[in-house]
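Researcher: Next entry in the queue.
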Amino acid sequence: MDAFYAAVEQRDDPQLRGLPVIVGGTGRRGVVATASYEARRFGVGSAMPTAQARERCPDGIFLPPRMARYAEVSAQIFCIFREFSPEVEGLSLDEAFIDVSASRKLLGTPMAMAQALKEKIRQRCQLACTVGVASNKLLAKLASGLGKPDGIRQITADQASAVIAVLPIQQLWTVGERTAERLQAAGIHRIGDLQQASATTLHRLLGPRGESLRRLALGLDERPVVVDREEKSIGAEETFERDLSSLDQALTMLMRLTEKAAARLRASDHLAAVVQLKLRKPPFVTQTRQRQLKPPLADTALLYACARELLETWWAAQRRPALRLLGVSFELVGAQTQQADLFGAKPTSLSLEDQINARFGQGGLVHARGLPAKFGPKG
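Model: Structure for this entry, 379 residues:
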């Protein structure tokens, strides 16, 4: 999907169409999750600090994420994916691999299916997407990047090596920042340079991994599409403009984060089997605390109660407690099932809460503990 979070915001609020929309943490230490293409013209991009985004795009519209809403729209889009093939591997809310090999006799060529897929998403969801068509996952991913925004790009096997040779090595799967730095120091800047590098050079730079990386540079990828790949965890975290120095502040923020993560949990139709806290204290010391849940849960209040106990225990053990970052995440288990009798009414109230927050934004309906205070992030 193209600029998914921002595109959903522009679709839901027509007044935002054509304007630079930036979704992410709105505080000074926040990070951009997605920027609309109008905002990208100013040099705003994903993972950029919000403060830098404001400098580059002072007239931009900065919005906090509505994860429950994005999960709802994502579910609609994935239903469309499965109309073309049951072989769907989801990578995130807005990206997936689809193996259409078995659908060709019924639905036509891959390019015809790509066009039909785009049209269905536009008609039903009023959103734009880019489709990459290729013989393997690596090339399909690179093709989609070359086709953005709102396009279709095919890379055939015979043209793959030449087409991707001009791309920066950072665009190659598994090449992270450190690997890129090591390769660039040896004069390897583009995928074509990697294609031409000797096995001896790559082994010296990367060890046994060098040969597998060279195969990827040639467009060779044997990874299959993994059906029903699911998120293993769902969470939310925030870095604060000013360190949280009181337990009351930390608990208020914990409730807000728990509400956000729990909404995504229920939207994914899962339960939480483990609650985990991520705690970063000044200057940059990160710790985690977790607890297993028996039975697994999806209720915000119960999840918060467990997370609160973990936070209070950690806080009491610190000589000078303070938090620069706080996060809460849930390890997922199975599909959510309705509880009967005593808990029968609870899922309905949770569903209403999620519907209100999906429509009006996270914070449209909150637990009292989660009401904003004069600290930390402003969004």
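Model: The chain has three domains: 4-65, 131-228, 233-370.
Researcher: Noted, moving on.
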